[in-house]
Amino acid sequence: MASERLRKLVVDIAKENDYGNPEIAINPINTGGANYTSALFTIIVSESDKEDLNLFAKVINVNEAIRSQLPEGIFDIERLAYEDLLKKYEDIEIAQNLPSSKRFVIPKYYGCNPKLFEEIIVLENLTEKGFTTYDRFKSIDWEYAAKAVETLAKYHALSMAYKEKHPEEFKQFTDNLKFQREMFTGVLRQLFVQRTATALAVTSEKHKSKLERYLKTEMTLDAVIKLSESPQRPVLCHGDYRPSNLMHRYNEDGSLEVIPVDFQTLQYGCPISDLLYFIFTGSDEKFRRQYFQDLTDHYYQELNSALRALELNPDVIYPKRAFELDLKEFLPFGLIIAIFSLPIVTVEVEDAPSMQADSSLEKVAKAKTGSSYPERMNGVINDFFRWGIIE
After folding, report:
1. Is 326 contained in some domain?
2. Count of CB atoms within 10 A of residue 44's CB?
3. pTM of the model
4. Where are the alpha helices (DSSP H) in 166-177?
5. How far apart are the first and last CA of the chain?
6. Is 333 part of a structural domain of the chain?
7. Most exposed: 205, 227, 295, 318, by fewest CB within 10 Å?
8. Cα gap 195→340, rounded to integer Å
9. Per-residue pLDDT tens over the stretch 323-337
10. How many domains is the chain built from?
11. Residue 293: closest CA among 324, 255, 332
């Protein structure tokens, strides 16, 4: 049983942290439709005369049918992220004497069960420190968006620094991610027809025929895959950088802090893809009309700052002109991100699909969309007509 495996792992973690005879309370979390592949738990390890140890656990919760459609090692990526990659990033920051304000912050990692089909990750419980997730039914605001892309810029800058300072190690790590690319391509092929049909079903009549033609002749599935496989300056991307995977809090001085979680979809690709993913999963048309240019500019400025803090020259590593060209080339990918992701982002809690029982990727794709989906999807479509990408 998953609960028994989790308890055994927590007992081991308690011992490693000098809890001799602790009480352990494990409670499930209702994610409200924000997480499909895992069962989530909060854990309190307590013992007299010691501070409570507040933990968070993610237990893989996917049936055999769906599991068979995904690469074997997909759920081990997050362990590699915490045990290898993110520790390397911290080493780089320490070597550069970066002040805390310039560092990329992650939750403390306590341990895992890496066994295939039984994977568990245990981290500190950030909610006990006042962190929470953004309401996925609301569009992001400027303050939150600016801080989120600042955090993203630090993350991408560390990938660039890793590649520059430790090229052989970096290559070895990215080679281990090749199956993530295979997964990305495989899932796209399985869901593309269904997801595009879902989008077209709610598209306004004035745009429907042109959008359908665009998806059949220009932004085809093969074009999407080719675009995703051809970045000029690839980095280690988060892969699912949306508000549901970001924890945030307001500090006593009024400042906002954002911590990314869920590195399960870590992949090697264009940094623009993470930026667009955040924008098109987190914002509505009104926000993008007002802030799209400001936010992309802000990301580059923060990336520039983060690279300089790591003693790297942005004009060499990622010149502004190269960033602008990448943004222009990858912008159509934002439409595909919306087509694939908005049904998940906007689904009502009671309609959130399960990946247990007799579920499959096809059934997940056909899950009922939420009431805000038509407005959010048409907002994105309006953007692409307004920008002249679809004519």
Report:
1. yes
2. 17
3. 0.92
4. 167-175
5. 55
6. yes
7. 205
8. 6
9. 999 999 999 999 999
10. 1
11. 324
